[in-house]
Design brief:
- The structure holds 2 protein chains of 2 kinds.
- By secondary structure, chain A is of the alpha/beta class.
- Chain A has 2 domains: about 120 residues, Rossmann fold, CATH 3.40.50; about 80 residues, no CATH class.
- Chain A is built from 7 helices and 9 strands; from the N terminus they run βαβααβαβαβββαββα.
- Chain A is elongated and about 65 Å long.
- Chain B has one domain: TIM Barrel (Alpha-Beta Barrel).
- Chain B has an 8-stranded parallel barrel, surrounded by 8 helices.
- In chain B, helix 6 links the parallel strand 5 and strand 6.
- Classes of the chains: A alpha/beta, B alpha/beta.
- At the A-B interface, strand 8 and helix 7 of A face helix 5 and helix 6 of B.
């Protein structure tokens, strides 16, 4: 899923403080799982903004709302009226949702309340870790199901580098060395000999490097 | 043995004599005098001199330009190239540029992560990894082709090296990892600084078991400790560096003003012991910002005079 983290409150305030009306709008799927952007978090953020409005003695009407997904047209039906009468929207969606809404409502400013951080999992309650960078050419089949693109800080395809120590990465003792994990997993699968197969030079044109990506199903 | 390049290092190694290389770090300025001075200081005691490539991710005068300065002194530089900062276009381009100046050796490295350096906010590239860079240099030389498959009319002729760190984890893949680099085309290896000699010897045992010492020239990495503080720092702060307790105790056991001498002594002893290890083809003496000590270490280890290569 997509993981995001709320921006510092002061940064949010600086973006929105000159409006007279603001709708704080949650997205209740991915970013709700990480407790940063769901409809409940939108309600809490709206309350904090209302307190700031009182403290600063300014005149901003703040309401909140939300939908299940800000990245698909059909989910917007229930919120059409709310958004159309908004002067500005503070979206708690990921960057995709913010852009989708900005495209739908061309004359309404849409501000991001979150920094979209990564594609990750819920490794334990309240703990999210990056697992994919959408490189467009998955190699998990040859790396024992551990992604070197997102989990090795040098995205090495033939690692580990010389900085792997005690299973940890050279950049942080809190970060697992992805290649240690690859090797452990290959060993568990009885495929450690595969380690010596050289992974060829990657085609990064399928990644961000090749420009914005899309695909279209012809049957629809 | 057939020579592939004009490299002095290749000639010494293929003559069957122990090779000696060293390294110099370029300055953080546009003044080349430091590198020229370092080169002159050690030139009679080593066969070839590595120039580091923005080591520890700190911005410095580029390796290629520093190599050109050494080349102009008539020395045989080893161009270190990390894949951290340049994509395949820039790497191949710099290889052509280096070859155009008669630089004959390249050492292919990943590079330290940028978070260690002066620009932790920078983007990193890692378009290729170090093994793929080894493959690239070999393909350019042997097949006369770029990665794209396009022909190179005058291919660059590099003697191709890579690094090995027998002390990084997991230990069980450190020999297979060397085998992989050899399969990619590495012709010489310069190792991480060796302080844990038994572990290095164990690694070499694995290397010999697979006959890798007959396929690649292994230069053992030697870095003299200047002080107890340096030893403790390397142990604490440099991942993949193995500094055993015995060495710490040994340095702690002498007066502070004698620790540097003790560090040099340890390096000389290490070289003398490793000379006897089958498969060690030479030594890479990295006296970090202490290049003036290289001649003494080389002489005291019995590696001087250096062979004269026509």
């Amino acid at each position: 899923m997509i993981v995001g983290e709320q921006k510092p409150f002061d940064e949010i305030w600086e973006m929105v403080k000159d409006h007279k009306q603001l709708t704080v709008f949650g997205c209740n799927t991915c970013v709700a799982v990480c407790h940063q952007g769901g409809n409940k978090e939108a309600e809490i953020l709206a309350s904090l903004l209302k307190m700031r409005v009182t403290q600063e003695d300014v005149d901003i009407e703040i309401v909140n709302g939300g939908i299940e997904r800000q990245c698909e047209h059909e989910f917007f039906d229930s919120a059409k009226a709310l958004i159309e009468k908004s002067e500005a929207v503070l979206s708690l969606a990921c960057g995709i949702g913010v852009q989708f809404m900005a495209m739908k409502y061309n004359t309404i400013p849409i501000y991001p309340a979150l920094n979209t951080t990564f594609l990750g999992d819920v490794i334990e309650k309240g703990h999210y870790t990056e697992k994919c960078q959408a490189c467009g050419d998955c190699v998990l089949g040859i790396t024992g199901g551990v992604c070197p693109v997102s989990r090795c800080c040098k995205r090495l395809f033939n690692g580990p580098c010389g900085g792997s120590a005690n299973g940890k990465c050279e950049i942080s003792k809190d970060l697992d060395c992805a290649w240690q994990l690859v090797i452990d997993r290959l060993e568990a699968l009885g495929k450690l000999d595969d380690y010596e197969k050289v992974t060829p030079i990657k085609d990064w044109s399928k990644d961000r490097a090749g420009g914005p990506r899309s695909f279209k199903l012809e049957d629809f | 043995m057939e020579l592939k390049t004009e490299s002095k290092l290749e000639k010494v190694l293929k003559s069957g004599q122990l090779a000696v290389t060293s390294e110099c770090g370029p300055p953080r300025s546009a003044d080349p005098q430091g590198i020229i001075k370092k080169g002159n200081m050690i030139k009679d005691h080593v066969d070839s001199i590595n120039i580091t490539d923005n080591q520890t991710s700190v911005t410095r005068l580029c390796s290629l330009a520093a190599c050109v300065h050494l080349k102009q002194l008539g020395l045989d530089p080893v161009l270190q190239m990390v894949v951290r900062d340049r994509n395949r276009i820039a790497l191949q381009s710099d290889l052509l540029g280096a070859a155009s100046f008669g630089i004959n050796n390249v050492l292919c490295l990943s590079g330290d992560h940028q978070s260690f350096g002066d620009n932790p906010q920078s983007q990193n590239v890692f378009d290729l990894d170090s093994m793929q860079l080894v493959q690239t240099v070999r393909m350019m030389r042997d097949e006369g082709k770029f990665i794209s498959g396009d022909e190179i009319k005058v291919p660059p002729k590099f003697f191709v090296g890579a690094a090995a760190n027998p002390f990084a984890d997991p230990f069980k893949i450190r020999v297979p990892r060397l085998a992989k680099k050899v399969a990619c085309g590495a012709e010489f290896i310069q190792t991480q600084c060796i302080y844990n000699i038994p572990k290095f010897e164990k690694w070499m045992e694995g290397v010999r078991e697979r006959g890798l010492h007959e396929k690649v020239y292994i230069l053992a990495g030697i870095t003299p400790m200047r002080s107890l503080g340096m030893a403790k720092y390397l142990r604490r702060a440099v991942p993949g560096m193995d500094v055993p307790d015995e060495l710490i105790d040994r340095l702690a056991g002498v007066d502070k003003n004698k620790q540097a001498d003790e560090g040099i002594k340890f390096s000389i002893e290490t070289i003398q012991r490793l000379k006897e290890v089958k498969g060690v083809a030479g030594f890479h003496v990295m006296a970090i910002e202490w290049e003036e000590k290289v001649p003494e270490i080389v002489e005291e280890s019995g590696l001087y005079p250096r062979p004269v290569i026509e």
